[in-house]
Amino acid sequence: MPFRLIRLIRYATSGGPRWGIVEGDVVREILGDPFGQWTAGAVAGKLAELTLLPPAAPTKILCVGRNYPAHAAEHGAEVPAEPFLFFKPPSALIGPNASIVLPPQSERVEYEAELAVVIGRRCRWVRAEEAWAYVLGVTCANDVTARDLQRRDGQWTRAKGFDTFCPVGPWVVVGVSEEEMADRAVICRVNGEVRQHGRTSQMVFSPAALIAYASSVMTLEPGDLILTGTPAGVGPLHEGDVVEVEVEGIGVLRNFVACPS
Ligand code: MG
């Protein structure tokens, strides 16, 4: 990872969530507004010893379906002429190292490795050419999906919306340019085995195009997340699996898979 990149995390404290900046193997607390003016304060602890939270607290999580032609093809679907948007609820968010809980209503829960964009400034009706100016940074996400319910329901609210179905993290990388993100690997590993290996250059609609399209519909707020779609190779998760989403040069998001306790 280039040295200049800034990694922001959210972590749990007895006083509630806090923002921090990663420096080597330690985290300094952020004083001020991570979406505005801030400075790095005292060391909060070692990165490995803090409980990491999703690195955003969005008002909404926007996702896009069928944004990689090879993934659309594996479901027998056409690539849409316009972005195919849907929501996941913020209640689905979990952070790194937390467990994806398999719901009893589904017999087929699948991973979807995705690049996610964190909105940095409120925007409406932005053009794609200026959209990146409204981005705080990028992170990794897993658009966990109950595939059987997605097919059965005819719309995706339940299949995509269970609690724990939106792992995000481990941090937001700030300061990366649109050009630098244009051709990064997006990888999913289950128990160390590579299951998906696409590249952001294969997207039908770029992150900037997705921001422009979404912002023509609704106001995007600081912290809102846009999940940019998954490459080919989706498949099932089972109790006890360890699932990792890696975006090249950004980070690795690791989560566990569990049954309800
Ligand atoms: Mg997806």
Gist of the model:
Helix content is 12%, strand content 41%.
What does this 3D model show about the protein?
- It is a single chain.
- By secondary structure, the protein is mainly β.
- It has one domain: Alpha-Beta Complex (Fumarylacetoacetate hydrolase, domain 2).
- It is 12% helix and 41% strand.
- It contains five helices and 20 strands.
- The protein has helices spanning 69-74, 128-131, 147-153, 157-161, 207-215; strands at 6-11, 18-23, 26-32, 38-46, 52-53, 61-65, 84-88, 93-94, 99-101, 109-111, 113-119, 135-142, 145-146, 166-174, 185-190, 193-199, 225-227, 235-236, 242-247, 251-258.
- Strands 1, 2, 3, 4, 5, 6, 7, 8, 11, 12, 14 and 17 form a twelve-stranded mixed sheet that branches.
- A hairpin with a 5-residue loop joins strand 3 (26-32) and strand 4.
- The chain binds magnesium ion.
- Magnesium ion binds at residues 63, 112, 114, 143, 229-230.
Number of domains: 1
Question: What hetero molecules are bound to the protein chains?
Answer: magnesium ion
- Average pLDDT: 96
Beta-strand content estimate: 35-45%
Radius of gyration: 17 Å
Distance between the termini: 38 Å
Number of strands: 20
**According to CATH, what is the class?**
Alpha Beta
User: In terms of per-residue confidence, which ranges show pLDDT below 50 for 5 or more consecutive residues?
Assistant: none
CATH architecture assignment name: Alpha-Beta Complex
Q: Based on CA inertia axes, which overall geometry fits?
A: globular
CATH topology: Fumarylacetoacetate hydrolase, domain 2
**Sheet with the most strands?**
12 strands, mixed
The class by helix and strand makeup works out as: mainly beta
In the CATH hierarchy, what is the superfamily? Fumarylacetoacetase-like, C-terminal domain
What is the chain-wise order of helices and strands? Answer: EEEEEEHEEEEEHEEHHEEEHEEEE
State the helicity in percent bands: 10-25%
